[in-house]
Amino acid sequence: MNITLQQAEKAIEAAKQKAVAIDTKMNIAIVDAGANLVAFGRMDGAWLGSLDISIKKAKTARYFDMNTGIVGELSQPGGSLYNIEHSNNGLITFPGGVPIKNDAGDIIGAIGVSGSSVENDHAVAETGALAI
Amino acid sequence: MNITLQQAEKAIEAAKQKAVAIDTKMNIAIVDAGANLVAFGRMDGAWLGSLDISIKKAKTARYFDMNTGIVGELSQPGGSLYNIEHSNNGLITFPGGVPIKNDAGDIIGAIGVSGSSVENDHAVAETGALAI
Amino acid sequence: MNITLQQAEKAIEAAKQKAVAIDTKMNIAIVDAGANLVAFGRMDGAWLGSLDISIKKAKTARYFDMNTGIVGELSQPGGSLYNIEHSNNGLITFPGGVPIKNDAGDIIGAIGVSGSSVENDHAVAETGALAI
Amino acid sequence: MNITLQQAEKAIEAAKQKAVAIDTKMNIAIVDAGANLVAFGRMDGAWLGSLDISIKKAKTARYFDMNTGIVGELSQPGGSLYNIEHSNNGLITFPGGVPIKNDAGDIIGAIGVSGSSVENDHAVAETGALAI
Question: Per its UniProt entry, which superkingdom is the organism in (chains A, B, C, D) (predicted)?
């Protein structure tokens, strides 16, 4: 019930290909069911600040078992989870973090991608998540 | 492809002269291409709290290779990068951080300035960045 | 003068093969010349606590451009660098971190390995470093 | 009763010249009477990990108004200040941090130097402190 390194590397490879296809440079992080880093890759020339963001997106997606952008809708001023980003040594709640499921539908980890627009980040993360 | 200490000191000197010219007292930080501090100067009487802000502005500008104020436009409530400031041990996303380029246009570091209005901070940072 | 993702992945692959050959399960981290993470892999069943250690070993090796074990010899009680581990948000100064050089002899990054005895950790790190 | 930026820059300049004279590459930090950074310079090619160490040495020297090496003699196992390094977000207690006094003998700040042997670090720090 936990992602393997082989699966994580497969997800990163698929994400990288998608990133190249849409002409972006990404940081790509995979965490396991325990929200701990399994694999990571920073493409040459990708934003340095996106390193930490990609890891935090992956953790956030597994912490709450949902896409990070959904958390971000609830964390706005006046929202029910206002400023939840202060927990867990910092969450990132805009799109780019996606849970990873096995064939049985169990969540076995998550992927976080950062380096471009949040739409591109999410598209690359989804490609990675679906590669497993 | 990395800023030298001599270049960093030249940038700080130019920034200080600009700060004096507009009657402000600034903290001025320079980071290299790896976002690590190269040089720093706090003018006498400058706000103490601006010390950390100037360093975070410089790092933020290099983390994303853009002026810090641009990040801040996207990190507002409802914006696509809302609360991105929780990453990287704290970003500062209002104006005053500017990437530094060499003659070939490569980014070799960044400057962060804090101690007055954000308009003044940005003006001083830009003066420092252009001195190289 | 900076390690590429392709080089980092090659180092991780070589390190993994060495880890398998000596029947160990390792966390393997690669940082660039700026001591920022480039690639990471945690082998299935590797100690969870070694995740952070492997990253700190890689950073430590680049911070001081030497094998981590050399720092550890100097940081013992009574040694000239006693308790240096309190700097840089935590160093790891026992063996397992090794600088990575290019063909010209320039240091372009570092590898950190953790998951077994320090002798095994160092052997796997060296194998990874030499693969580039 | 507080070091000025001009004095701090003078100390860094003297320290740099000493560092060159003994063929070393140093990180040099100056803090004021409040133990807050006033000026900093990292010489080209100096150890990256010494950045934080130089700042912590300067702070430690001002925190206790003595050379850092004296603190380190007391922080050894069995010593009266055993593991004092855990305080203040991390002290560095080996040589290289020296208080800075004005002509009246008042402590107005401190200098921290890191990048070589602790003997060299201390020699460069002392040169910087005496330049004021």
Answer: Bacteria
